[in-house]
Amino acid sequence: MKIRACAVGQILAGTTALCGLVSLAWADQTVSIGTVGPLTGAYAGYGKDSENGALLAVERVNAAGLTIGGQKITLRLESQDDAGDPRTATQVAQKLVDDKVVAVVGHTNSGTSIPASKVYSDAGIVQISPSATNPAYTQQGLKTTYRVVATDATQGPVLASYAAKKLKLKSVAIIDDSTAYGQGLAQEFERSAKSAGIRVVSHEAANDKTIDFRAVLTKIKGENPDAIMYGGADAGGGTLAKQARQLGLRAKILGGDGLCTEKMVELAGPAVENVVCSEASAALEKMPGGQAFDTAFKARFGHPVQSYAHYAYDSVMVIVDAMKRAGSTDPANILAAMPGTQYSGVTGAISFDSRGDLLHGTISLYDYVGGKRKFLDQVTM
């Protein structure tokens, strides 16, 4: 009504240009937040889950109403597909920069988060990954990189310690998928396993598209290790576990968060009962807002959380919190507010060290019983 009154008054006064400026001042502002992950390809399940988590956060913020600096803000989520490919990741990162997003939730994979981070850094845009665990992501000296999960520098050692102390394993063969995530996790695990007294009989490299592990598994069968540690995602890990069982290997299958998914049951079949995996986070049911989030997520999307939806959700909320504290939606001001983050989210207390790593991260351990993932233990760092 005020805008209309202004318009009528200014038209009568012959100053319609001024009225246009006043109208703009009263208009709502739409602010875009980017989200990137693999929406196609082998990692699509992770990417879609994170996208849905970010979308739920945006919808809830808009429903509740958001005012920054006295102006009503409507959030818009701009989603991009990097297909889990590093080159594509830099291309879609540049598109988000060109589209003037104020911050980015992503990327999902370490191997895409790392190359894309330079693009966001050059533009001065905050990047919060809900799932990238390779330590190198935040060790580049960039001021724009943040993550809301623990790193492989803690996940690898915790998995190795559990293997030595709880599972009483004496020997292990290692296979990684040659990605930044899989290779990084495998290397951290190997160092810690050796320190814990576990003998590493071999370390083989595959790739993230490998679907036939029988040749390397036959070689490993001759080495007779107590366990096989696989650094990679469930698409490869599930196949590996199934083929190991078919070849008569009794070795435990160990893996990180890439294997710790509900989809592993489908991919590995009965062989999933032989899998022990770690996750760079607390168990959803043990998080402060975990159960309520899971209920809301199921109601919105028709299925439970698959992997990192709750972390993508909190990433959006951390960005909104930074906007509120900055009193601004300008990317530079959001970035300046990020180091002071003290946010209580679905996943727990979120604050960051000088590199952008999560303080007090948690590693959880699981196995699979009766076709269901079962919580074993957790370690808070």
For CATH, the homologous superfamily of the largest domain is named as Response regulator
Strands of the widest sheet, in order across it, are 8-7-9-10-11-14-15
Q: Indicate the low-confidence ranges by residue numbers.
A: 1-26
CATH architecture of the largest domain: 3-Layer(aba) Sandwich
First-to-last CA distance: 55 Å
* CATH class type of the largest domain: Alpha Beta
**Structural class category:** alpha/beta
Report on this structure:
The chain is an alpha/beta fold and 381 residues long. It has two domains: 29-150 and 285-350, Rossmann fold; 153-279 and 364-380, Response regulator (Rossmann fold, 3-Layer(aba) Sandwich), CATH 3.40.50. Helix content is 44%, strand content 22%. The chain contains 13 helices and 15 strands. The strands form three sheets. A seven-stranded mixed β-sheet has the order 8-7-9-10-11-14-15, sandwiched between helices. The chain has a six-stranded mixed β-sheet with strand order 2-3-1-4-5-6, sandwiched between helices. α10 (263-268) links the parallel β10 (252-255) and β11. α4 (86-98) packs parallel to α5 and α12 (309-326) crosses α13. It is elongated and about 70 Å long. It starts with a helix and ends with a strand.
Topology:
Layout: H1 2-13, H2 16-26, E1 29-37, H3 44-64, E2 66-68, E3 71-81, H4 86-98, E4 103-105, H5 110-123, E5 126-129, E6 145-147, H6 152-165, E7 171-176, H7 180-195, E8 199-205, H8 214-223, E9 227-231, H9 234-246, E10 252-255, H10 263-268, E11 275-279, H11 290-301, H12 309-326, H13 331-337, E12 343-345, E13 348-350, E14 362-369, E15 372-380
Parallel strand pairs: 1-3, 1-4, 4-5, 5-6, 7-8, 7-9, 9-10, 10-11
Antiparallel strand pairs: 2-3, 11-14, 12-13, 14-15
Helix pairs in contact: 1-2, 3-12, 4-5, 6-7, 12-13
Protein name: Branched-chain amino acid ABC transporter substrate-binding protein
Keywords: Amino-acid transport, Signal, Transport
Signal peptide: 1-27
